[in-house]
Write a structure and sequence with these properties.
The strands form two sheets. The protein has a seven-stranded mixed beta sheet, sandwiched between helices. Strands 6-7 form a two-stranded antiparallel sheet. It is about 35% helix and about 25% strand. About 35% of the residues are buried. It has about 250 residues and is α/β, with parallel strands linked by helices. The two termini are about 30 Å apart. The protein binds S-adenosylmethionine.
């Protein structure tokens, strides 16, 4: 999941990538943003992609910095929202060894730290800290490893979507899958994607000088995981983790 990957996805972004804003029917992320927002404050949207959060951010904050690694994504976002004149679009790699960024009072980072590279994730978490002013608020959403394992267990136990027919193409791939899962990296649409444990997320943020205020589940429907979810399958629903943290 490097820059090339995200540039390739960009033209078909709407079809390829899961829309967190649309699927968070609880509105918990919007509420967290509204709680942190002020017309006196600045906000940085880290991994903004095609700018789904821009209308909310631009109308709730004084100034918005929309950051993404993909120039194509940023161009799409910029063309979509010409009416919001308080938004700056900045191409930047938050996983780079060195970063120049204007820190803001609030940061949102929604399903952007997905890379299977540990080195890139370490840099990304450091970048989160650099991007936020002291006492500033971070709203971070990441895929949940607990949810992914729960989904896998259900798929296997009840052969959902023909789970039993799935074949691993080679022993090399089997070795890769086994090694990855030990690090919380598991495929989404055949792309190795980092998933996080709640405790891991709390640890990673505290190491970067954040105080975690709360971690909440962002629940989705089973239709987001299965083509044909069993009718009886209800709560708990699949989820991402949302973490609200304060920079110390
Ligand atoms: C799954 S999309 C999420 C988009 C958006 N936050 C949303 O909720 O709709 C992940 C985005 O993170 C961006 N991204 C991934 N790695 C990045 C990095 N190292 N630096 C900056 N942006 C990155 C990708 O280009 C992509 O647009």
């Amino acid at each position: 999941m490097d820059r090339k990957y995200w540039e390739t996805i960009a033209p078909n972004y709407e079809e390829e990538i899961f829309d967190v804003l649309r699927n968070d029917t609880s509105g918990l992320i919007v509420s967290a943003i509204e709680q942190a927002a002020s017309r006196e404050k600045s906000v940085i949207d880290i991994g903004c992609a095609v700018g789904k959060w821009i209308p909310l951010l631009a109308s709730s904050f004084k100034h918005v910095i929309a950051v993404d690694i993909s120039a194509t994504n940023l161009q799409i976002a910029k063309e979509k929202y010409p009416q919001f004149t308080n938004v700056d679009y900045v191409r930047s790699d938050m996983s780079a060894d060195e970063l120049s960024v204007t820190p803001c009072d609030v940061a949102i980072c929604i399903n952007a730290i997905l890379t299977d590279s540990l080195k890139k994730r370490i840099n990304f978490f450091q970048s989160l800290s650099i991007s936020i002013n002291k006492e500033g608020i971070l709203i971070l959403v990441v895929p949940s490893l607990e949810s992914k394992l729960y989904t896998n267990i259900i798929a296997n136990r009840w052969n959902v979507d023909g789970d039993h027919d799935e074949k691993i193409e080679s022993s090399k791939k089997a070795f890769e899958l086994a090694n990855n899962i030990k690090q919380g990296v598991t495929d989404i649409d055949n792309v190795p994607t980092k998933h996080y444990l709640k405790e891991e997320l709390q640890l990673l943020l505290s190491l970067e000088g954040f105080t975690v205020e709360r971690v909440e589940k962002i629940n989705y429907t089973w239709k987001t995981e299965f083509n044909n979810p069993p009718k009886w399958l209800q709560e708990p629903y699949p989820w991402d983790w949302m973490c609200v943290a304060k920079k110390g």
